[in-house]
């Protein structure tokens, strides 16, 4: 035991323990203060080592601008697009859909006749409200909804290139 001086009178068990501690301390006395790391690890657990392993001082990234579309819900086929001038703002935009030129009129729940279901879906997206197909074919001059059999509604047609807008009294 060269280099270790113990006061006399210590029990043998304490001398062996002190010798082991001094060897551990002497072995780990390196510039990174591993003794402090070991002490912290023994009290705080393995998380300290993970933190120190991943810690890279001086590598900070700037906070990113808020995403205007984060958490924004767009309905009826619309998609959120960030404003190019201000990315922190988002707007619901309908997809630019080209509908087929097939004329297969449908009557929408908004009392409008659409040239086909695709046109109805585009109108639904633009209005951002539900428009259902009430029946195949044009809405007609008057229409009685099955659930409201005692009520007569007057409808006008629009969005068809084949027909002009009109309102007819019942």
TrEMBL record:
Gene3D superfamilies: 3.30.60.30
Protein name: Kazal-like domain-containing protein
Residue ranges occupied by any Kazal-like domain in the UniProt entry: 93-141
InterPro entries: Kazal_dom, Kazal_dom_sf, Prot_Inhib_GrowthFact_Antg
UniProt keyword Cell cycle present: no
Organism expressing this protein natively: Scleropages formosus
One GO term (biological process): cell differentiation
Pfam families: Kazal_2
Keywords for the protein's UniProt record, in alphabetical order: Disulfide bond, Membrane, Transmembrane, Transmembrane helix
UniProt cross-references to SMART domains, sorted A to Z: KAZAL
Chain ranges passing through the membrane: 27-52
GO cellular component term of the entry, any: extracellular region
């Amino acid at each position: 035991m060269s280099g270790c001086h113990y006061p006399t009178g210590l029990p043998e068990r304490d001398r062996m323990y002190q010798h082991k501690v001094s060897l551990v301390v002497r072995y780990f006395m390196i510039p990174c203060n591993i003794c402090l790391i070991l002490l912290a690890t023994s009290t705080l657990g393995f998380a300290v080592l993970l933190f120190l392993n991943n810690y890279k001082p001086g590598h900070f990234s700037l906070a990113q601008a808020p995403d205007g579309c984060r958490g924004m819900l767009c309905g009826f086929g619309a998609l959120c697009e960030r404003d190019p001038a201000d990315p922190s703002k988002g707007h619901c935009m309908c997809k630019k859909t080209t509908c087929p030129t097939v004329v297969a009129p449908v009557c929408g729940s908004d009392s409008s006749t659409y040239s086909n279901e695709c046109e109805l879906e585009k109108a639904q997206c633009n209005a951002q409200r539900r428009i259902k197909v009430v029946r195949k074919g044009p809405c007609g001059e008057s229409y009685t909804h099955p659930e409201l059999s005692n009520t007569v509604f007057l409808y006008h047609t629009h969005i068809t290139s084949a027909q002009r807008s009109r309102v007819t009294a019942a």
